[in-house]
Amino acid sequence: MWMDDEFFARVGHDLRGELATMLAGVHYLLRYQKDLGAAPRDMLERVRGAGERLKRLLDEFDNSIWLRADPSRPMAIASCDAGELAHRAAGHLEEAATARGVRISFDAEPDGGAPVEGDPELLRVAIEYVLGFAILRSRDRPVQMRVSIAGGEAVVTVIDEAGPVAPEPLARLLDPFGERAAIPADPVAPRRRERLGLGLAIARGILGAHGGGLTVEPSSGRAGGGSTEPASGLSATGLRFTCSLGGVRRGSPPGSPETTGRGRAASASGDDG
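Below the sequence we write its predicted structure tokens.
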């Protein structure tokens, strides 16, 4: 049985309240308890890191309302630019990318920008989930972001070089929990969970609510240049995600196709990757 948006709001709120109390205690000890030994401080740092990861997982839990389409869910519509959204998403994930040795590069944006009418925070969250997934796959490898206009619609493309994904898991990659099969275990902490496994499915739901969409396919492209089209005889070097941002119109009647989309998720940081 699918739970409604209120269920996620109440559960998320209660869990965040308890987590905030725990993190406040840890931060207090790390800052003011000067006589902590090395071992206790190391343990508190590990707890702090786990708490920050839990915050990101709770964001993903909150945003999972987008796994279900709801025409009555309102959005905060505004004019925005796809290039700016892509840069903001990358900025939120800069620390995660640096920690994994990932260099994010941008293609030149189209002249005049790539205007979009939509919920800027939700669109940023969607792009972040896609980019964050590519970063998680790409330790010490580059990731490319490209902003373009296709058919009058703004498109953000994310290309990684993290190796191919077998056809069967690739076909399920955008389904809930499908992304887990394509993320290699972290060699430092194999059991560490950075995502619930819903991010790509959430991104697809958000973009679909804007009249756009998300697709994924093998790519033989390289961030430093060269073909991005899989060709006969070439092995895929990674994945290419195409985020069509769609567009909605301000002032559309509630419940119309132009206003399908937003709940509490716009307030979530979406910086888990």
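The beta strands are 78-81, 104-106, 115-118, 143-150, 153-160, 213-219, 238-244.
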